[in-house]
User: Fold this.
Amino acid sequence: MRNVSWHSRHVESTWCGWATPPAPRHCVVAAVPAPSVAYVKAGFTHCPLSPRPSPKVQNPGFITRGCRIGQLILSWFLARHTGSSRFRKGHAMYPPPLPYQGYPPPPTPLRPVRGVAIFAVVALVCDSLIGIVAAVIDLWYASLVDHMIVDLDSVSEAEIDTGDFVYGLSGIFETVVYLVAVVAFLVWLFRVRANAEILSPGGHRHSRPWLIFGWMVPIVNFWFPKQIVDDIWYASSRVSSPPRGLFNVWWAAWLIGTWGTNVAVRLLFNSDGLEPLAAAARFDVVSIVLMLIAAVLAIGVIRKITEAQEEHRSAAAAGMTPGGMPSGGMASGTPGGIGGMAPGAPGGDHPGY
Assistant:
């Protein structure tokens, strides 16, 4: 411990060299013990660490008073320039006490998903209905084109203009409703992903931006969205190995339907005659049927994940006391899942795909 020795007309900063210095956590700045008399009687002329020798000390009492005065000056200086009360007179140099921890904060509640799920399902149903109407219009327009191929004079100009207008208007409505369904599905996907991150914080292979970019970036859009939905289902399910047959069939139907839609659009824009135009209209019916199958399966996916997360919310609400704390242990709907670890969390089993 560094101390200050005051001598007559001379101030020397030395090490007192006590045999048993007090521990830093148990010393009080204003009550530092004096150097031992044995040290002074031993005839030490200076501290070995001092840069220059000090005169031989003969008055232990004077050293005691000098040490205390030096400690008071040092404590005043530190308190003035650091603002810390631990260096002030009479305060022990203990670390500040830790704040009272109390009970741990309650787990983050899951957000309701039934509302956005209904919105997504209604949008998919509307898209399917518009698709059915568009398929009927495609068949009617293809029949009109066939009549024109057989006998151009058998179709009037008014019928041709009406067919072009209705066929184009159906395509516009189909595109608008499809975009609304996409937005509704993404809103639902973001909501269930947020809840899945609460249930299983480490059970997701892709970050949130990929919930949008995963559908648009070439190559990776063949499997990134499927992995995102699988991770959400794995975190939301209340069993260790949930079945994924519906998800696999839905994703296959989606890929095939998307491929059919792209082919139909290319045939329509590349048709430079009546026969290619009729073929494009008929192939558009095939793509619509494929997308209808994918939409029905997507509704099943939405329902399964939504029901699983709503069960977690119901279990969490039932396991809470009026004060907001679990009534006994961890509720089954709180983060931690079954057995203290949510499915898909680090350390647990991850789906092999």
